[in-house]
Write a structure and sequence with these properties.
The two termini are about 15 Å apart. It contains 10 helices and 8 strands. Strand 2 (about 40-45), helix 2 (about 50-60) and strand 3 form a beta-alpha-beta unit. Strands 1-2-3-4-5-6-7-8 form an 8-stranded parallel β-barrel, surrounded by 5 helices. It is α/β, with parallel strands linked by helices and about 250 residues long. It is globular. It has helices at about 20-35, 50-60, 85-90, 100-105, 110-120, 135-140, 145-155, 180-195, 215-220, 235-245; strands spanning about 5-10, 40-45, 65, 95, 125-130, 165-170, 205-210, 225-230. The structure holds phosphoenolpyruvate. Phosphoenolpyruvate binds near residues 11, 174, 208 and 232.
């Protein structure tokens, strides 16, 4: 498969207060301005409380904005929830859905994730749909089948194929410093493309799980890996930028 422009996504999770978040975003913008035109796409997904301020900090730069989750409905009596259209209003272009922390800590099923994908696409956002196997599933040799099922079940029937990213995030690799070998990641990405059918040709498939400056270069040797979803290493502007540079 030909090498595509890569997508580097920061998932800040529940990190960042007003001052620290804006400072981090400004540091990243400074690097982006010094390296224009960028040879990759970069998205920051801060906590919802910071989206407006980060949007202001990155305004006019090539950096894009995303959210970490959205509700399935456009509006309504859903105390504490936020709709995809609300994120569109704030200038978001992407939204992460089905992250393993949402699936495990909030009991989100693939069927619910599929509804979120539909809601995100309707609001004009590109959903970044996370899938990944547990350590037990890896050990039992069922990774391929688990991922295939998750991809199929996490997408709605009326999917807009040109407005989608899949993130392969093995649960055992998130925040652990462990990772599959790059060739094993590439093999799973091929399974994901297979599950997507014809859309597999156009949908970016990115990898997440302990991506760091030291392992990024080896990851991006694999042309199957269209980018990275970065958690803890995205909280440091130098480290995050080094990962992005490795993707060129
Ligand atoms: C994540 O949770 O999306 C993630 C990739 O985290 P980390 O990079 O910290 O493993």
């Amino acid at each position: 498969m030909a090498k595509r422009r890569r997508l580097i996504v920061a998932n800040w999770k529940m990190h960042g207060r007003l001052t620290s978040g804006v400072t981090l975003a400004r540091d990243i913008v400074e690097k982006a301005e010094a390296n224009k035109p960028l040879e990759f796409d970069m998205v920051l997904c801060p906590p919802a409380t910071l989206i407006w301020s980060i949007g202001e900090a990155i305004a006019g730069s090539p950096i894009l904005l995303g959210a970490q989750d959205c509700h399935t409905a456009t509006h309504g009596a859903y105390t504490g929830d936020l709709s995809a259209a609300m994120f569109t209003d704030l200038g978001c272009r992407y939204v992460i859905v089905g992250h393993s922390e949402r699936r495990s800590q909030h009991g989100e099923s693939s069927e619910l994730v599929a509804k979120k994908v539909e809601a995100a696409q309707l609001a004009g956002l590109t959903p970044i749909v996370c899938v990944g196997e547990t350590a037990e599933q890896l050990q039992s040799g069922s990774t391929g089948e688990i991922i295939r099922q998750q991809v199929i079940a996490s997408l709605p029937e009326n999917l807009k194929k040109g407005q989608l990213v899949i993130a392969y995030e093995p649960i055992w690799a998130i925040g652990t410093g462990q990772q599959p070998a790059p060739r094993d990641i590439a093999a799973v990405h091929k399974i994901i493309r297979g599950a997507l059918g014809a859309a597999g040709e156009i949908v970016p498939v990115i990898y997440g799980g302990s991506v760091a400056p030291l392992n990024a270069l080896a990851l991006f040797q694999e042309h199957e890996i269209d980018g990275a979803l970065v958690g803890s290493a995205s909280l440091n502007s130098d480290g995050f930028w080094a990962i992005a540079e490795a993707s060129r």
